[in-house]
Amino acid sequence: MELRVLMLLRAWFTLDTVVGVTVDDRPQQQGNATPRVDQWLWSVRITKTRADAAELCRSGHVKVNGKTVKPAAKLVVGDRIETRVHQLDRVVVVTKLISKRVGAAVAVECFDDCSPPPPERSSASPVFERDRGAGRPTKRDRRRLDDLRGRRQDFF
């Protein structure tokens, strides 16, 4: 049994050194220093709770280096994280690994923010206003409101 294990290890290391195949192209960290994606997002205050960060990962709204990841994926310095939080796209590059939540001043030092600027408030969707006490909207008012919001679907 030991001979078989030694042969497998020898074959693996020979293949690795000759062909240049590596298990992971990213540099590895020593020990238990690599935090999970959801833990890091919470630690640097991108999400309010760790459960929110895990839910973002599970629903496919978090990408690390262009690939959708699960909450337990490990991070290394230099990873590019793309996520959508509160209808805003966030793009950050990891500069420091932390696993405990820190203050806002320290959290800003742990990543470089490459996010696109948020849209201007004036370019937001127009608001349909009705007089107070005007009662329930009529069918015509509701259709205008749906047209304004871009939700109207004609069935004919």
Report on this structure:
There is one protein chain. The protein is of the alpha+beta class and 156 residues long. It has a domain at 33-117: Roll (Structural Genomics Hypothetical 15.5 Kd Protein In mrcA-pckA Intergenic Region, Chain A). The chain contains 5 helices and 5 strands, in the order H-H-H-E-E-E-E-H-E-H. The protein has helices at residues 2-19, 37-43, 50-58, 104-108, 139-149; strands at 62-64, 67-68, 80-85, 88-94, 111-113. It has a 5-stranded antiparallel sheet. Strand 1 and strand 2 form a beta hairpin. The longest helix has 18 residues, at 2-19.
The CATH topology of one domain comes to Structural Genomics Hypothetical 15.5 Kd Protein In mrcA-pckA Intergenic Region, Chain A
Rounded radius of gyration (Å): 25 Å
- Sketch the topology as an H/E string, one letter per element: HHHEEEEHEH
Helix content, binned percent:
25-40%
The biggest sheet amounts to: 5 strands, antiparallel
Low-confidence stretches: 15-24
Overall 3D geometry?
elongated
Q: Provide the CATH top-level class of one domain.
A: Alpha Beta
Mean pLDDT: 80
Annotation, overall tally of beta strands: 5
The count of helical stretches stands at 5
Question: Keywords for this structure?
Answer:
156 residues; elongated; alpha+beta; 5-stranded antiparallel β-sheet; single chain; Structural Genomics Hypothetical 15.5 Kd Protein In mrcA-pckA Intergenic Region, Chain A
